[in-house]
Design goal:
26 strands; Beta-Lactamase; binds magnesium ion; rod-shaped; Alpha-Beta Plaits; single chain; alpha+beta; binds ligand C2E
Length: about 750
C-alpha cells in the first residue's frame, strides 16, 4: 500500500454538493464500519482513514489510534513493504485491483496472513491515494496448512503404504494408491474411474461382495475377510480385505478399501501346513517304524525266551510227559537231601515201573503206549503234593522224590498212586489198564545220595514185581542182599558158558494113554563153583536183561538137539525135545534160520523139536508172533504154549497160532484135587484145546490124584516129579530104558 504518487485532496466542492458529499461520506463510514473486512485509505504512505475492523485487525481499540500511522509499520519489515509495492503498483496503475496474500504485522508485533485487495483511487494520479481491503486470513491459513498437512500425511501414507488402498464411490475407483495398482498389476492411474468389477473373478462374486461387504457399512461396521481376487492378467490371488464406508450416514461418499496380498502368506501357510502334515506323516512313519521295531524286538525277545525255555525244558523235562527228567531230579534231590540233612528230615524216593507195559507198546504201537504214559504222568502228578517231584527216566520208569516224608507217609502215597492207576485209560478204542510196581527207599537209612537211593528203590520195585506186581515194597536188607546177588550172578553168568558151568537136564514127558516117555523138556542148569546150583528161574531173567540169553539160548537149543540126535543114533525110540524159548530169543530176527541150521547140523527131523513159548511172548505183538510161528511151522518145527492159563490169551489169536500143544501151568495142577476153581480152569483148558485141535500137557504133576483128574479130563500128556525130576542126560537115558 505504498503510495508512489500521492497528492493532497482538492477542497473545491459546491454547498449542495457538500451536503451530498457529507451524506455520501456518512454512508461510506457506515459501509466501512459494518464491513467484515478491514478497509483503509492510504495517502502519502500514511493511514488517512480506516474502518473499525481494520483497527481491530492491527490490534487497536479504535480507528483514531491508527490514523496517521506510517503504512510501512503494517508490514513485518521494510523489505516486505517494498516487495509488495513493487508487485502491486504496476497492476494498480493499470486501474486494476491488486490482490495478494501477504504477511502483515499487528501493533503487538504479531505477524499474520492477510488477504489484500488494493486499488488506486485514480490510476492516473497515485497521489490521490489508494484504498485497501484487508482480511485477516491467519486462522484460515492455519486450518489450510493443517489440512494440507493432513493431506500430505494422507498422501504419504497412500504412497508409501505397503497395502493397497482404494477409494470407491458407486463401486468406481475415485482414488487409489500405487500399492493397489501394483498388487493388481495396473499401471499408475490406469484404474482411475474403473469399476471394481475388474478385480473380481466372476460377476457373481462381485455381486456377492456388494451384499456381503456393503451391508455392514450402513451400520458403521467394517468389513474384514479374505477374498480371492483377480489381477489384470487374470491370475487369481488371495488377499486380506478391510473396508469401511467413508460416511455411514451417506453412502454416496463412498468407501475405502484396504487390501493386502496374502498369496505369499497363504503360500507360506500352506507350505507350513504341508510341512506340518509332512512332519506329522514323518512322525507317524517313524512312530510306526519304531513300534514295528519294538514289536519285532519284543517278538524276538519272546522267541528267544521261548527258545531258551524250550532248551531249558529239553534239558530238564521229559519231552513226552513234561515231567522233570533225570537232570532236574538230580538237582531237586540234591536240594531235598541237603535240606533233610540239616533239618533231620526223612526223604522218600520211589521207583515206579509199569507191569507188562511192553505188551501195550508191542501190541498196540508206541503212539498208544505214549498216550498211556502221558495220562499216567498226569495222574501221578495229581496224586502228590506240590513239593514232591514226579520225574520220568524214560520208558515206563518213573522216580518220585518226596521231601520230608517218612515210611508211613510214603506207604500212603504209594497206595494213592496204585489207586490212581486203577482206572482204565481210554486211548482211541482201547480201554487199557496199567498196574504199577513201586519200590521205596528212604533217606537216611537206605542211602545218602540219589544214586544209592534210586538203586535201592529199583531193587525194591523188582521185589514188588516178584511178589506179584501191582503193589509196593520198601527197600529192606533182604532186598539189598537180593540185589547184590543179582549183580553177582549177572557178572558170574558172563563166564558161565565159556567155563562150561552150564548143563542141561531133561524131564520126561509121559503119554497119558500108554505111560510111555514121548518127550523130554530141556531145563537149563548152572553149577557155579562157589555159588553152587543156581535156579534158571533166578538167572534166566538176569540173562534176559543183560543180553546173555541169546548165546545161552542158542547153546541150549544146539545142546538139546544134538543130545536127542545122539540118543536116536544110539537107538532110542524118537521122542520130542522141548526147549524153552525166552521172549528175547523169539523176537530175534534170525531165530527160524538158526533153528533150521541147528537141526540140519544135527540131522534131526524138525518135528522132533518143540519150542516152548510163554503165553505172554506169544500174545505180545501177536501179529508179529504169528508170522514167526508160521515161519517155524513151515520149517516143520513144533511149538507149544508154556505156563498156559497164567497169561491173557485171546482165543481169536490162539486159533491162528501154529502151536501144537498147550502146557497147563503147574500152579493149576498143584491144587487140582481140592480147588474147584483150578478144576474148572484145567477142565476148560483141555476142552478148549480139544476143540482147537491142540494137544495138552500138564506140568508139575506130583501125585496120583492129580494124574487121575487129568486123565479123567482127557489131558494128553503129563510131566512132573510124580514121574521124574529133571535128569542129566545119562539118567534120562536110564529112565527111558527102564520105563520105556
Ligand atoms: P518151565 O518151563 O515151566 O519149567 C518147568 C519147571 O517146573 C522146571 O523148573 C521144572 O524143574 C519144574 N518142575 C517140573 N516138574 C515139577 C513138579 O512136579 N513139581 C514142581 N514143583 N516143579 C516141577 P526149573 O527147571 O527150575 O525151571 C524154571 C523155569 O526156568 C522154567 O519153567 C523155564 O521157564 C525156565 N527155564 C529153564 N530152562 C530154560 C531154558 O533153557 N531156557 C529158558 N528160556 N528158560 C528156561
Ligand atoms: Mg517149560
Ligand atoms: Mg512151565
Amino acid at each position: 500500500m505504498s503510495e508512489a504518487n500521492a497528492r493532497p485532496e482538492s477542497p473545491t466542492v459546491p454547498n449542495g454538493a457538500l451536503e451530498q458529499l457529507q451524506l455520501a461520506l456518512r454512508e461510506q463510514q457506515v459501509i466501512l464500519d459494518t464491513a467484515g473486512v478491514g478497509i483503509v485509505f492510504i495517502k502519502q504512505r500514511v493511514v488517512i482513514r480506516c474502518n473499525q475492523r481494520f483497527a481491530s485487525i492491527f490490534g487497536h481499540a479504535q480507528t483514531a489510534d491508527i490514523l496517521g500511522s506510517a503504512n510501512v509499520s503494517l508490514y513485518p519489515d521494510k523489505a516486505a513493504f517494498h516487495a509488495l509495492g513493487e508487485a502491486a503498483y504496476p497492476i494498480m496503475a493499470q486501474g486494476l485491483p491488486y490482490q495478494s496474500e501477504v504477511l502483515m504485522k499487528r501493533q503487538d508485533g504479531e505477524v499474520f496472513w492477510a488477504h489484500l485487495t488494493g486499488k488506486l483511487v485514480n490510476p492516473n494520479n497515485t497521489d490521490e491515494g489508494s484504498i485497501w481491503i484487508v482480511d485477516d486470513i491467519s486462522a484460515q491459513k492455519t486450518s489450510q496448512a493443517q489440512l494440507q498437512f493432513v493431506l500430505n500425511e494422507q498422501n504419504l501414507i497412500l504412497d508409501n503404504a505397503m497395502v493397497g488402498i482404494v477409494f470407491l464411490r458407486d463401486r468406481i475407483v475415485t482414488r487409489c494408491n500405487a500399492a493397489f495398482e501394483g498388487i493388481l498389476g495396473y499401471a499408475p492411474g490406469e484404474l482411475h474411474g474403473a469399476s471394481s468389477r475388474q478385480w473380481y473373478l466372476t460377476e457373481q462374486e462381485w455381486v456377492a461382495a456388494a451384499r456381503d461387504c456393503y451391508a455392514p457399512f450402513a451400520t458403521g461396521a467394517a468389513f474384514q475377510g479374505e477374498m480371492l481376487l483377480r489381477k489384470k492378467d487374470g491370475s487369481p490371488f488371495n488377499c486380506d480385505v478391510r473396508a469401511k464406508a467413508i460416511d455411514p450416514t451417506d453412502m454416496r461418499k463412498g468407501s475405502i478399501w484396504i487390501i493386502m496380498d496374502i498369496t505369499g502368506r497363504k503360500q507360506a501357510e500352506n507350505e507350513l501346513l504341508q510341512a506340518h502334515a509332512q512332519l506329522e506323516q514323518l512322525v507317524e512313519l517313524r512312530t510306526q517304524e519304531l513300534s514295528r521295531t519294538v514289536a519285532e524286538l519284543e517278538q524276538k525277545a519272546i522267541e528267544q525266551k521261548a527258545a531258551e525255555a524250550h532248551i531249558q525244558r529239553l534239558a530238564h523235562f521229559d519231552a513226552l510227559t513234561g515231567l522233570p527228567n533225570r537232570v532236574l531230579l538230580n538237582d531237586r534231590s540234591q536240594l531235598a537231601l541237603s535240606v533233610a540233612r540239616r533239618s533231620h528230615q526223612t526223604v522218600a524216593l520211589m521207583f515206579l515201573d509199569l507191569d507188562h507195559f511192553k505188551n501195550i507198546n508191542d501190541s498196540l504201537g508206541h503212539r498208544v503206549g505214549d498216550e498211556v504214559l502221558v495220562e499216567l504222568a498226569k495222574r501221578l502228578k495229581a496224586a502228590v503234593r506240590e513239593q514232591d517231584t514226579v520225574s520220568r527216566l524214560g520208558g515206563d520208569e518213573f522216580i518220585l522224590l518226596l521231601p520230608d516224608t517218612d515210611a508211613a507217609g510214603a506207604a500212603q502215597v504209594a497206595d494213592k498212586l496204585l489207586r490212581a492207576a486203577l482206572w482204565p485209560i481210554q486211548v482211541e478204542q482201547h480201554e487199557l489198564t496199567v498196574t504199577p510196581s513201586i519200590g521205596i527207599a528212604l533217606y537216611p537209612q537206605d542211602g545218602a545220595d540219589l544214586d544209592t537211593l534210586s538203586k535201592c528203590a529199583d531193587a525194591a520195585m523188582y521185589r514188588a514185581k516178584g511178589d506179584g506186581r501191582n503193589g509196593y515194597r520198601f527197600f529192606t536188607h533182604d532186598i539189598q542182599a537180593q540185589s547184590d546177588r543179582t549183580l553177582l550172578l549177572g557178572n558170574a553168568l558172563r563166564r558161565a558158558l565159556e567155563r562150561e558151568q552150564l548143563t542141561l537136564h531133561y524131564q520126561p514127558q509121559i503119554l497119558m494113554a500108554t505111560g510111555a516117555t514121548v518127550g523130554a523138556e530141556a531145563l537149563l542148569r548152572w553149577n557155579h563153583p562157589e555159588l553152587g546150583a543156581v535156579s534158571p528161574a533166578e538167572f534166566i531173567p538176569i540173562a534176559e536183561t543183560n543180553g546173555l540169553i541169546l548165546p545161552i539160548g542158542e547153546w541150549v537149543i544146539r545142546t538139546a538137539v544134538q543130545q536127542l540126535a545122539r540118543w536116536i543114533a544110539q537107538g532110542m525110540a524118537p521122542i520130542t525135545m522141548a526147549v524153552n524159548l525166552s521172549s528175547v530169543q523169539f523176537r530175534h530176527a534170525n531165530l527160524p534160520q538158526l533153528v533150521s541150521s541147528i537141526l540140519t547140523e544135527a540131522a534131526l527131523p524138525p518135528h522132533l523139536l518143540e519150542l516152548e513159548l510163554t503165553e505172554g511172548v506169544a500174545m505180545t505183538n501177536a501179529l508179529e508172533a504169528i508170522a514167526v510161528m508160521d515161519d517155524l511151522h513151515q520149517r516143520g518145527v513144533r511149538m507149544s504154549i508154556d505156563d498156559f492159563g497164567t497169561g491173557y490169551s485171546s482165543l481169536s489169536y490162539l486159533k491162528r497160532f501154529q502151536v501144537y500143544k498147550l502146557k497147563i501151568d503147574q500152579s493149576f495142577v498143584r491144587d487140582i484135587t481140592e480147588d474147584p476153581d483150578d478144576k474148572a480152569i484145567v477142565g476148560a483148558i483141555i476142552s478148549m484145546a480139544q476143540s482147537l485141535g491142540l494137544k495138552t500137557i500138564a506140568e508139575g504133576v506130583e501125585t496120583e490124584g492129580q494124574l487121575a483128574f487129568l486123565r479123567a479130563r482127557g489131558c494128553d500128556e503129563v510131566q512132573g516129579y510124580h514121574f521124574s525130576r529133571p535128569l542129566n542126560a545119562q539118567a534120562f537115558e536110564d529112565f527111558v530104558r527102564v520105563n520105556g
